[in-house]
Write a structure and sequence with these properties.
Chain lengths: ~600, ~400
C-alpha cells in the first residue's frame, strides 16, 4: 500500500495531541485544495472557451461573408470548364513528292450529351437512331436516363448534314464540340503507308489527333510539333504512280487468283520508295479494328511489302552470281556442271520440274534459273563471304523504312549456317525477307553497286552509301537479268515491255506450312524482281503474289513466270510513262509502217 | 404533536420543476432551436417535394414525417433539458452503452441502403443510425471521465476517454463514415482543449494532421481528386457543388421566390446535405444569414454561459455538445459556399431526417440542461475578494 502523506501535517499532529479526529482536518484540507484546483481550471477554461466562442463566431462570419459575396455576384451562364490546357489541334499535312495531299485536316464536330439537361431523352434517342443507323435507340435511352451519367460521347465525327439533323431534334442536352479530323482524301490509296489516326486526349472543345499506324505514327511527334508550323511532310511517293500500281496489282491479284499481293517500286539511286502496295488494303479514314482471329498476316491491316517475310526464291540467284563475279571467282561465261546428282549435307538439290540443264555458263544458270548451278557458285564463294555480302545488302535486318510496321519485318535467317544453308539460300530458300528488302538489294545491283537506304521521304540527288559491287560486275549482272526477260527461253519472257528494256529475275517458292514440317505442294509465293531500263537503270520493282494460280492452261500454273511476271510487266507498262521514262526502241523493232492507201 | 412524533410531512425541497426550468434555461438558445426547427419545416416544404415525387409519394410526405419526428425530437429535447446534470450523466452512460453495442453490431445486423456504407439499422418505417445517437452520449461520458480524472486521486479518466474515442473513430472509419468519425474526434479535441491540454501538444497534433493530410493527398487518388476539385477555382456546373454555388448566386439577396427554385430538382441531396442551397435560392441571402445567426447564437451563447461554469463535468460536456452541434452546421454550410471540400453532412435540425432528428433533439436537450443557470459560488468568490 502506498502511503498517502497526511496534510497539513502540523495541524494533524496537533489534533492528535488534543485527541481530535485528524480525518476531518484532512478532509477539509482536501476540499479546499479541490476548490482551489477547480478555480484554477475554470480560469484557464474561461479563456479557452472565449477563444472557442470567438473562433466559432469568426467561422460563421466568414461563411456568411462568403454567402454574401456569392449572392452579390451576377449570375452567369454556367459553362463546363475545358480540361487542362487547350489541346494542340493542328497536325501537319502529308503530301506526295509533287505536293499532292495525302493526309490533311478538316474541321468537323463531335456530338456529346449532357443527360441531365435533356428534356425528352426517349425522343432524342429515337431521333438519333434515325440519323445514325449504327446507334441503338433502346441502348441510348437507357444511357440518357441513367442518373449517374452526366456526360457521354455519342459520335466523334459528324458530317455537316448529320449535324444539322441533330440540331433539328432541338434537344438542349445534345451538344457539339469542334473537332479537327484527319482526312485521307485518296481513300485506300497508300493506306498501309499512311496508317491512320484517331483521337488521343479528348476534350469537349478540341481533341488531339494522334497517328495510330504507318507514317502517321512514326512521325506523330513531328507532325504535331507546333514548331513545324504546319510545314507538310513530303513523301517520296508519287501519288499517280501509286494509284496506277495499286490498280494494276489489284487486277493482277484477281486474275491470278492470289489471296494477297505486294509491290515495291524504288528509285535505285536514292532509295526512295516511289510506290508501295500491299493488298488487300483498307481505308485509313475508317481504319478497321485489328483482327482477333485468324492469321494476322491475312488481315488487310498487314503490310505485306514491309512486314511480310517470305522466301523469295530464285530472285536471290543474282546475288550469288554477282558476288562470284565481284570476287573474281568466275566470269559470266564460266561453265558450271549442273547435272545431277548434287548432294549437300545428305540432301539432293533438285531443279524445277527435274530439269537437267547439263554444263552451262554462269549467265545461263541465271537465265534458266538453275538451283544446282547457283548452289555450286555459292559453295565456291563460301558461307562467310556469302553472309557478309547478303548482310551488306541489308537482307539480315529489318528495313529502316519510316513506318512503325517496318521494324516488324525482321528477316528469318538460319541460326546455324551450314553448307546446305549456303546452297539453299543462294536460290532463295531458307531465308525469308520482305519484298522491300529485295527491292533495296536489287537497287544496289542496278545503281552500279551502291547500297541505298529505303526511305519514304523525298530525297534530292543520289543517296549512295557503301560500294559492294563494281561497275563492271553490275553491268554483267544487269545483262544477265535482261536476258532472263529478253531471251526466248528465259523464265521471265512475259516481262518484256517494249521500249523499257526490263531486266529481272523470277522466284517461285513453295510456301512453308504454318505449323512447320515441310512445304505445301500447291501454294507458292511468286515473285518477280525487276530493274528498268537495264541500259541505264532508274527503278527497281518487286511484285509478289501470295498463292497465285494461273488456270488458263490445261493444268494450273503457279510459277512466277506465269503469274508475277505478267503483272509486273503490265505495271511497268502503266507506270513508266508516268515516271517520265521515254521508251527507247531498237531500230529493228520499230515496225511502224506509214502506209498510204493505194 | 403529530408532527413531533411522526416527523414533518415530506415535501419536495426547492421549487417545482417547470418554473425552475423556465427560470434557469437559456431561453435565447431555446428560441433559436425552435426557430431552426420551424425553418427546417419551411425549407422541407420546398426541398423535399422532388424527393417525394421521385419516390411516388404525396408531395408533402416528407414534410409530414419531418413534423412527426421533429415533434418527437422537441419532446425529447424538452424532457432532457429539464433533467439535472447528474441525471443527464446517468442516462447518457446507459445510452452510451446501448449505442456502442448497436454500433459494434452494425457490420452484422446493419443495412447499407445501397449506399456502400453500413451505417443503419432498418426498422421498416424508419431507419436508425447508431452513430447519431452515440455522438451526444459519447461526449457526456467523455466529459464525465475527463472531469473525474481531474479529481484528487481520481482515475486516469482522460486516458480512458481517449481510448474510447479511438475505438469509436476506428469503428466509424471502417463503415466507412469519415464525417461522423471526424466529428467525434473534433468534439473530443475541443473538450480536451478546454480541459487544459498543453499548448505544445496541441501544436504537435496540428502538425500531425497537416502531415496526415499531405500523406493522404499523395497516397489516395480519391482524396486528391476531392482536394483538387476544391482548390480548382472553376466549378464544374454539373456537380452537386456546381449546382449549389449556382443556386446561391441565382438567389441573390432576396431569393427567386418561394417554390420558384430549380436547384432542388437537380440535386439528389437537396433535402439534406444541400438544403442551405435551396434556402439561398428561394429565400435569398437574408434567410441564409438568419440561419447562420441562429447557429452562431446557440453556439456562442453556450460557450459564454459555460465560461461561468464551475463544475468541470458540466463545462466539458456542454463544450463538447455545443462544438459538435456548431461544427456540423459550419461544415454543411462551408461546403455549400466552397469554403470546405465536399463532405456530406446534414444541417442539424434543418435538414430532413428521421431518427437523427430525435438524436439531435436529445443532444440539444442535454446542451440546454448543462447550460442552465446554476449557483456558481459567486458569493464565495466575493468573500474571498473578487475573482483574483
Amino acid at each position: 500500500m502506498t502511503r498517502i502523506p497526511l496534510r497539513p501535517l502540523a495541524r494533524i499532529l496537533d489534533a492528535r495531541k488534543k485527541g481530535e479526529d485528524p480525518d476531518a482536518i484532512e478532509k477539509e484540507n482536501r476540499r479546499l485544495r479541490h476548490e482551489e484546483m477547480r478555480d484554477r481550471a475554470r480560469l484557464r477554461a474561461e479563456g479557452r472557451l472565449l477563444v472557442l466562442a470567438m473562433m466559432f463566431f469568426c467561422a460563421y462570419a466568414v461563411i456568411g461573408a462568403r454567402m454574401g459575396m456569392l449572392s452579390a455576384s451576377e449570375p452567369e451562364e454556367p459553362r463546363a470548364q475545358a480540361t487542362g490546357a487547350s489541346i494542340m489541334a493542328s497536325r501537319a499535312d502529308i503530301v506526295d513528292r509533287h505536293g499532292r495531299v495525302l493526309a490533311t485536316n478538316m474541321s468537323t464536330h463531335s456530338l456529346y450529351a449532357h443527360p441531365q439537361q435533356m428534356i425528352e431523352p426517349g425522343r432524342a434517342a429515337e431521333r438519333l437512331a434515325e440519323i445514325f443507323p449504327d446507334l441503338d435507340a433502346a441502348d441510348m435511352k437507357r444511357r440518357f436516363t441513367d442518373p449517374r451519367r452526366k456526360f457521354l460521347w455519342i459520335k466523334k465525327k459528324l458530317s455537316p448534314e448529320q449535324m444539322q439533323a441533330v440540331h433539328d431534334i432541338g434537344e438542349p442536352g445534345l451538344l457539339f464540340g469542334p473537332r479537327e479530323m484527319r482526312l485521307y482524301p485518296n481513300g485506300p490509296v497508300l493506306s498501309h503507308v499512311l496508317g491512320g489516326s484517331s483521337f488521343g486526349a479528348e476534350g469537349v472543345h478540341s481533341a488531339e489527333v494522334i497517328g495510330t499506324a504507318g507514317i502517321e505514327r512514326f512521325f506523330d511527334k513531328d507532325l504535331r510539333d507546333p514548331a513545324r508550323e504546319g510545314t507538310p511532310l513530303a513523301l517520296s511517293i508519287d501519288l499517280t504512280v501509286q494509284a496506277a500500281a495499286e490498280e494494276v496489282l489489284y487486277s493482277g491479284m484477281k486474275l491470278m487468283n492470289a489471296k494477297g499481293a505486294a509491290a515495291v517500286l524504288m528509285d535505285v539511286h536514292t532509295g526512295e520508295v516511289i510506290s508501295i502496295v500491299s493488298l488487300p488494303d483498307f481505308d485509313p479514314n475508317d481504319r478497321p479494328a485489328a483482327p482477333t482471329k485468324g492469321s494476322p498476316s491475312d488481315s488487310p491491316l498487314f503490310n505485306r511489302a514491309v512486314q511480310g517475310v517470305y522466301e523469295l526464291g530464285s530472285t536471290f540467284k543474282i546475288f550469288a552470281a554477282s558476288q562470284a563475279l565481284q570476287l573474281g571467282l568466275m566470269t559470266p561465261q564460266t561453265v558450271i556442271d549442273t547435272s545431277p546428282p548434287f548432294k549437300v549435307g545428305g540432301h539432293r538439290i533438285g531443279e524445277f520440274e527435274n530439269h537437267n540443264y547439263g554444263a552451262i555458263s554462269v549467265e545461263e544458270v541465271i537465265i534458266k534459273s538453275s538451283n544446282r548451278g547457283t548452289g555450286k557458285i555459292a559453295l565456291a564463294i563460301g558461307a562467310e563471304r556469302q553472309k557478309d555480302f547478303l548482310k551488306s545488302l541489308g537482307l539480315f535486318d529489318p528495313t529502316p523504312l519510316e513506318i512503325t510496321e517496318a521494324s516488324g519485318g525482321r528477316p528469318l535467317i538460319p541460326e546455324r549456317w551450314t553448307d546446305l544453308s549456303t546452297v539453299t539460300i543462294s536460290y532463295g530458300h531458307g531465308i525469308s525477307t520482305t519484298p522491300l528488302h529485295l527491292a533495296t538489294a536489287y537497287s544496289a545491283i542496278a545503281n552500279g553497286g551502291h547500297t541505298v537506304k529505303p526511305t519514304l521521304l523525298k530525297q534530292s540527288g543520289s543517296q549512295y552509301r557503301d560500294v559492294v559491287l563494281s561497275e563492271q560486275v553490275t553491268r554483267d549482272a544487269l545483262n544477265m537479268l535482261r536476258q532472263v526477260v529478253s531471251s526466248d527461253d528465259g523464265t521471265a519472257s512475259f516481262g518484256e515491255v517494249p521500249g523499257y528494256k526490263v531486266g529481272g529475275k523470277t522466284g517461285t517458292a513453295d510456301k512453308p506450312k504454318e505449323k512447320g514440317g515441310g512445304y505445301y505442294k500447291d501454294k507458292v509465293i511468286a515473285t518477280f524482281a525487276a530493274v528498268f531500263p537495264t541500259d541505264d537503270p532508274k527503278y527497281a520493282l518487286v511484285v509478289t503474289l501470295d498463292e497465285p494460280v494461273e488456270t488458263s492452261g490445261t493444268k494450273p500454273r503457279r510459277t512466277a513466270g506465269w503469274t508475277a511476271v505478267p503483272v509486273a510487266a503490265e505495271m511497268i507498262r502503266r507506270v513508266a510513262p508516268l515516271l517520265g521514262l521515254r521508251p527507247v526502241y531498237d531500230t529493228g523493232q520499230l515496225d511502224v509502217t506509214m502506209s498510204a492507201s493505194d | 404533536m403529530t408532527e413531533m412524533v411522526y416527523g414533518a410531512v415530506p415535501v419536495a425541497g426547492g421549487e417545482p420543476v417547470l418554473p425552475k426550468w423556465w427560470r434557469t434555461v437559456d431561453k435565447w438558445s431555446l428560441g433559436c432551436i425552435l426557430t431552426l426547427f420551424a425553418v427546417g419545416i419551411l425549407l422541407g416544404l420546398a426541398a423535399s417535394v422532388p424527393l417525394a415525387e421521385r419516390n411516388g409519394l404525396a408531395p408533402f410526405h416528407y414534410v409530414q414525417r419531418q413534423a412527426f419526428f421533429g415533434g418527437m425530437a422537441l419532446v425529447a429535447m424538452l424532457m432532457t433539458s429539464m433533467m439535472p446534470p447528474v441525471q443527464v450523466r446517468r442516462l447518457a452512460v446507459i445510452g452510451f452503452l446501448a449505442a456502442f453495442v448497436a454500433l459494434a453490431f452494425l457490420p452484422f445486423l446493419g443495412t447499407d441502403f445501397g449506399k456502400g456504407a453500413t451505417r443503419w439499422y432498418s426498422l421498416g418505417f424508419a431507419s436508425f443510425q447508431p452513430s447519431e445517437f452515440l455522438k451526444p452520449v459519447f461526449i457526456i461520458v467523455s466529459a464525465w471521465l475527463m472531469a473525474a480524472g481531474q479529481e484528487l486521486g481520481g482515475p486516469p479518466g482522460r486516458l480512458y476517454s481517449f481510448v474510447i474515442m479511438v475505438i469509436i473513430v476506428l469503428m466509424l472509419a471502417m463503415q466507412p463514415d469519415f464525417g461522423q468519425a471526424s466529428l467525434i474526434l473534433f468534439s473530443w479535441g475541443v473538450m480536451w482543449f478546454v480541459g487544459g491540454a498543453p499548448m505544445v501538444l496541441l501544436a504537435g497534433l496540428a502538425g500531425l494532421v497537416v502531415m496526415g493530410g499531405t500523406f493522404a493527398y499523395n497516397a489516395s487518388d480519391h482524396f486528391a481528386r476531392r482536394i483538387d476539385g476544391f482548390l480548382n477555382p472553376e466549378v464544374d456546373p454539373t456537380t452537386q457543388m456546381g449546382y449549389a454555388t449556382n443556386a446561391i448566386i441565382e438567389g441573390g439577396f432576396f431569393g427567386v421566390g418561394v417554390g420558384e427554385g430549380t436547384v432542388k430538382w437537380s440535386l439528389p441531396d437537396a433535402h439534406t446535405d444541400f438544403i442551405i442551397a435551396v434556402a439561398a435560392e428561394e429565400y435569398g441571402l437574408v434567410m441564409v444569414l438568419a440561419i447562420l445567426a441562429l447557429y452562431a447564437t446557440i453556439v456562442v451563447r453556450s460557450f459564454i454561459r459555460l465560461m461561468r461554469e464551475r463544475d468541470p463535468f458540466i463545462r466539458y460536456g456542454g463544450t463538447g455538445l455545443a462544438a459538435i452541434f456548431g461544427v456540423q452546421a459550419m461544415i454543411n454550410m462551408g461546403v455549400a459556399v466552397r469554403l470546405l471540400p465536399a463532405k456530406g453532412m446534414t444541417l442539424p435540425f434543418v435538414s430532413y431526417g428521421g431518427s437523427s432528428l430525435i438524436a439531435g433533439g436529445i443532444a440539444v436537450g442535454m446542451l440546454l440542461a448543462l447550460t442552465r443557470t446554476r449557483p456558481q459560488g459567486e458569493i464565495g468568490d466575493i468573500l474571498r475578494g473578487g475573482r483574483r
